[in-house]
Protein 1
Amino acid sequence: MRLSGVEIRWVEMPLKSPFRTSFGTQTTRQLLLLRAVSDEAEGWGECVAMADPVYSSEYLEGCADVLRRFLVPSLGGEVDGVAVAGRLAKWRGHRMAKGALEMAVLDAELRARGVSFGRELGATRDRVPCGVSVGIMDSVPELLDAVGGYLDEGYVRIKLKIEPGWDVEPVRAVRERFGDDVLLQVDANTAYTLGDARHLARLDPFDLLLIEQPLDEEEVLAHAELAKVVRTPICLDESITSAKSAADAIRLGACQIVNIKPGRVGGYLEARRIHDVCAAGGIAVWCGGMLETGIGRAANVALAALPGCTLPGDTSASDRYYAMDVTEPFVLDDGHLPVPAGPGLGVTPLPDALDAVTVKTEWIAL
Ligand SMILES: CSCC[C@@H](NC(=O)CCC(=O)O)C(=O)O
Ligand SMILES: [Mg+2]
């Protein structure tokens, strides 16, 4: 198919409540939505970069710039989803921007072909169990109220954000209040060092599913050292940027589990390759989240339905973060979300809802 151009849409979604991690507090999710217009169909992509380079080196305006000047102009002529990565390979890095563009082209192609994202990626289920990510709170009682609420809503797994000073005590409190059967894990977003190994081992008695990205994203060997001290399985997030980096991390013993985030790794096709590399290595994977709108959420739920995704992902319902989504909301049903079955993403933005959160649009003609 041939693209006539790509629309970049700056979107601002107010969060229902502040979301605090070890690298800061978010009250509004600023993100880019891409609309790829081709001679066969239109497709949507979501760029998960944050407004500031605090989760990774990418940031919203940087993504808009690299899309405008380098990535979109590289997609002239005949193109389809699988061709995008090769066409963009000459531009180094910028995985979130590339992933969003590939997603939009892939969505257009799949809509034209009448194939769902789930079928294209190899989904084996039509609904997926959902976990929820719980931010750092001002007090343990506030945390327990939040966790109780999510368990009442039916979430099958609780993930607690941790940082030095907020780790053992909140985990112990959740275990004491909700018991040993709740699936529980923690995410440090790189907040610790190898010198904290003995302290992190104090989490071992709480039977956590995993400790996510305790150390800096570049500390792959240090994670392997940490795994010799901490009994709880190590899961990597920020460190895993491609199938190659996943294979290396597994071989080095740096992780027993991998959080796959399509935006972080350059798109859903690379995400599937990571899934396949991990499955070959006996490594469990799950689909992470970047507070996506229903656009990215639809694709994430499709990815979460792959056979190697044996742990609940951060694929929460739309109302975890947003009072109103830009698509029909994803609603939790018995702790699960349905995998969209329609062509492409299977969802499209609701024009009025999308306009209400759009702050700017830019058309990039090809
Ligand atoms: C703004 S924090 C985004 C990164 C974080 N994501 C989550 O905690 C899940 C967010 C979600 O539910 O989409 C992670 O490191 O895993
Ligand atoms: Mg994480």
Protein 2
Amino acid sequence: TQSTRPQRLLGAVQKNATRGDPRSVVKAIDEFCRHKEWAMNVGDEKGCILDSVVSELNPATVLELGTYCGYSTVRIASLLPPHAKLITLEFNPDYAKIACQVIAWAGLEDKIQLVEGSSAEWIPKMKEHFGVKMLDLVFMDHWKDDYLPDTKLLEDCGLLRKGSVLLADNVICPGSPDYLKYVRRSPRYKSQYFRSHLEYTKAEDGLEKSVFLG
Ligand SMILES: CCc1ncnc2c1ncn2[C@@H]1O[C@H](/C=C/CNC(=O)c2cc(-c3ccc(F)cc3)cc(O)c2O)[C@@H](O)[C@H]1O
Ligand SMILES: [Mg+2]
């Protein structure tokens, strides 16, 4: 049977990356997507912006919405302090299976909790199920129409504190106009746009960083 693109991406990691070396996993995926097959990872250019936001924040608890193949999961987790935790939600079981193996190849299983299911189902369970008190960082990279409803759900579930950061991928391409309007207009957020390019292309895209003001 034909392999899928995520399966071929995993193959490139297992072939070209060193077990237990997260940066080599990130590099192997970027090489594969730049030279072999494009895939919707945040990529190396926007990835550097992601790295700087994570490093500056030094978050103890991170939530990622939309694992896909685990590229940004590995990229974020490789920068977290020793006891920090990253919970990543992915509702496609095939993608979750690939991401699980990419995370294992990077040797980051201890820092990452991959949950198979939808954000709508699991965000309300964060506190009781994972013992999460507050989220320091949320990286949004799932369906773009879900950015806004999930942001409101995070607020309603009391998961954001003064200083919590929402970092959203693709606010230009494919775009999430309703989300952008909301965080830029709301007095409860201090929002900032980091201009960049769509992964592995010259098209414009960017990340929106929004700090919750409480
Ligand atoms: C139900 C809530 C919910 N709960 C849990 N997991 C969820 C979920 N909703 C979705 N997922 C999973 O997240 C990932 C989806 C990601 C969606 N991302 C883009 O569509 C995208 C597109 C381009 C682009 C494509 C083509 C172009 F021409 C240009 C740009 C570039 C990008 O960086 C992009 O992120 C998948 O793993 C879903 O299974
Ligand atoms: Mg994206």
